[in-house]
Specification:
Length: about 40
């Protein structure tokens, strides 16, 4: 994932990358939590 703090561009372009990065992080965290919950249930 790119570091959005290092990006250059218009405010809108930078905010779009921040949002995309946030969503990628959210998806990874949710995946890990699902795996932990599954392992705990087994």
């Amino acid at each position: 994932m790119p570091d959005p703090a290092k990006l250059r561009g218009s405010e809108e372009e930078v905010m779009d990358i921040f949002r995309e990065t946030r969503e990628k992080v959210r998806q990874r965290v949710e995946f890990v939590l699902e795996q932990v919950a599954y392992e705990a249930a087994v």
